[in-house]
Each structure stands twice: as structure tokens, then as C-alpha cells.
Amino acid sequence: MASHQLVNTIWNSPLKKLHLIVHYYPMRKSYTLKVISAFIFISCSLSLFGQDSWLQRPNVGGNRNREGASGFAIGDTGYITCGMDIDSVYHDFWAYVPSTNTWIKKDTLPAPKRQAASATSMNGYGYLMCGIKPSSCYRIGGGVCAGTFLNDVWQYTPSTGTWTNISTFPGAARDNAVLVADPTDSILFFGTGNNNTLSFLNDWWSYKPSTNTWTQLDSFPPGQRSCAVGFFSHGAVYVGTGDDNGKVDAACDFYKYNISSNTWTKVSNITGNRRQASVFVINDTAYVGLGAVGPSAPVGYTDLWMYDAVNDKWTAKANYPQGATYLAVGLSINNKGYIATGTFGAHDTSLYWEYTPGVKDTTVGIATITSNNDISLFPNPNNGIFTIQSSVVSDLLSVQVYNVLGEKIFEHSFSTLSASFDLSNQPNGIYLYRLTSNGNPVSTGKFVIEK
After folding, report:
1. Of 366 and 356, more confident
2. Does position 167 have pLDDT exceeding 70, yes or no?
3. CA 415 – CA 437 distance, rounded (Å)
4. Fewest CB atoms less than 10 Å from the CB: which of 91, 230, 276, 420?
């Protein structure tokens, strides 16, 4: 058998045929083992790149089925609270620890029970605001409920395990609103939602927890909207989908909120009109999916879409394996996304699923950014200690470093034109880096660690 035939046999054969190759070439173990090793490496690389997957995890603590719950993640821990089932409303509080794959009961939220509250995390704290305490809406699938609309704002401190009522929202009390954190500027953005009329809300606000300051901003441009989703990516806020003035088919549009100019820009629609969708962000890349369409007996979605903010492009990812679900919580912990609870079929659930993105997902946009001659990394190769120098005038620069598997291993923000970094704890190899200015990608490149 010629050498090229040997390689073809390895490439096109299942792993079990490698044993036959070793048998045919007993005197050339070194050569054969090198080919086998290369084949295994190629096979592993092929299995990693571009694939994404779902894995079911233990049900949300207490096994309480719920829709319209709220959640966020801080560090290595995810949190779920509030929500309602067919005959109950909750304000219990649970923490999920991925390292032990367990739920831990925390102290109850010291506020009224509620559903459809807005929640997020920012710079080590959790935030929850508004929502509704229903009085006559104990039914699967939610909707416009009678009850008490809330306008309180709560901050959770994980180091002490305590909630603090830090503010009162100055606008109309509401549920099903959008809350997005800008961790760079330590600002929360909040708006849209429902206050028990079929004419929904389109106001838009910023809130600085450090000064307890609210500012009303330019309104959401399409008009009144409820049950939308929002996320922060590449230095901007994005809001889309949801009930559009009570229209039958909901909406599929998305808009980018430009923070510095207080303006909105239309971006690409997601596929499928939907409301009550779920969203999580992994490594500055947003994933939006699930949700429902229809005014009654809603038809749910199972799809998941990745949004590339650099190229304004949506890409279909692996469907949610549980089935069509809406009113579920989305959150991310480290490099994984999670979908919790929600309405599935005719029942609310306590289900909890973990999503692992494909390797290419974690480096979205890197290949499309051109290198910038005004930015340099030196020395290259290096022993893990290097300097990035830039002539880009910026309030904030950020560098992200990825290994060859596309995993982000390092990120740091700095405000000087030159900064040094220490990755000497990383193994020898080739690494990719991306530099952003005020959240906008400006350059990418590669370097070698060789110790």
C-alpha cells in the first residue's frame, strides 16, 4: 500500500481500522503512530470546530414549575428567582453551581412575590426590578394579568447573600420590560414593557446604581413593545422581538441603541416573529431563541440564533432539545449558556438546560477584522510576557486572547496607549488576540508563546 493510500485509508476510515494499519506495518511503528496521532488530532479538531450542543442539568431548585421567572449570573454562579405557576406566585431564590452541578437554596427575596420582573447582573452584583404581583392570572402562558404592577429596584450582593432595595423606578410600574447592563460604564438600561393596557410602553431609561440616578432617553423607535428581549454586545445595547402594539404575529425586528449618541439604529431581523423569547450572551456574542407567536394558544419555537454584532448577521444554531418553549429564563455562566423553566406544551416547567457553543462561536468576527498598523504586540514570539502598543485614541481599550481551540483565556481593559500583560502561566503555542476600542473591534493578530 502506498503512503498516500495509507493516509486516505486513515482519513476515510473509522477509528477501529487504525489497528489494521499497525498490523500491516509492524516495523514502522514510529511512522504509523505519527500518522495515527495526526489523525486523532484532526478528528478531534473537526469534532470541536463549529459544533454546539445541549445538555440537561438538574431541575431548578425546589422543582417548582414556573413561567415568567427572573435570573442572572455572577461569576461562577447562576441565580433564579420569582415566577409563577398555575396557582402560585414565588419569590424564592436559588443558586446554581456548575462545578458541583447542584442548586443551593438562598434567602428569599425580601420583596413582594412577582412574575415577569426584569433581571440582570453587572460588575459583581445582581439587579431585579418591576414585574407584577398577579391577583387573577393564575394560568399557563401568562398574558395581560390583573394585579399590582411594581416599580421597586433591588440589588443582590453575593458576598453577603443579601438583597437591598436601592431605588424606585420613576416611570410607570410595569412587567415584561427589557433590562440590559453596560458593564463598561456601570449603567443599566431599562424600558418598554406592559402596564396592563394593550397600548404597550416604548420609553427608555438609564440608571446608575453608584449615584442612584435615572435619566430618560430616546424612546424605542418602532413604538410600544412588550415581552421583548435585550442584550449588550460590542459596546452597544440591542433590543428586539416582542408584542408590537398587540399585533397577532408579534415582531422579529431588532434595533441597536448607540450609548454615546443616545440614538437607535435598525439592524437585521431575527428569523421568526416572536414574543417571550430568551437570550444569553457568551464572550460578547448574543444568542436569542425560543419564544412564542399567536394571541391565544401560543405556538412556541425551539430554535436558537447567534447574533454577530460585527457583521450584523444571524446564524442558526442547535435547536433547544426540550421542545417549543417560551417565558423561560436565559443566562450564561463562564463560556456556557443556560435556559431555565418556562412554558413547554401545556405545562410550566422547572427544567434547566446547558448550552455549549461551537468553538468558532467564541471568536465571532475575528477573521473579518483587518489588522491595524497603528497597533503592535511585542516581543513576538515571547515567553508569555508581552506589550501591546496603540496609537488609537480611546477612553477604553480592551484585549481578548484566545487559544487555538477558540477558547477565550484572557481579557483585560486599559486606558493607556501601552500596556504589558503576563500570560506566562499558559502553555507554549499559537494564540489569537483581538483589540477593541470603546467596545468596537479595531485589530486582531496572533502571537507565539515559546518558553
Report:
1. 356
2. yes
3. 10
4. 420
The label of the residue with cell 440564533 reads 305
CA–CA dist 225, 389 (Å, integer): 45
Distance, in Å, from the CA atom of 194 to the CA atom of 201, rounded to the nearest integer, reads 6
- Where are the domains positioned within the chain? 3-48, 53-358, 366-449
The upper half-sphere exposure of residue 338, i.e. CA atoms within 13 Å in the direction of its Cβ, equals: 29
pTM above 0.85, yes or no: no
Same CATH fold, 366-449 and 53-358? Answer: no
CA gap 264, 256 in Å, rounded: 6
Are the C-beta atoms of 283 and 402 separated by less than 8 Å?
A: no
Q: How confident is the model at residue 419 (pLDDT cuts 50, 70, 90)?
A: confident
CATH class of 366-449: mainly beta
Q: What are phi and psi of 107, to 5 degrees?
A: -60, 140
Contacts of 89 (CB under 8 A, 6+ apart): 82, 83, 113, 114, 115, 133, 134, 138
Average pLDDT over residues 225-231: 96
Distance CA 425, CA 246 (A): 55
Q: What long-range pairs does 202-211 form, CB within 8 A, spacing at least 24?
A: 203/171, 203/172, 204/257, 205/169, 205/170, 205/171, 207/153, 207/167, 209/122, 209/125, 209/127, 209/155, 209/166, 209/167, 210/186
List, for residues 108-159, the tens digit of each pLDDT value: 999 999 999 999 999 999 999 999 998 765 444 444 457 899 999 999 999 9
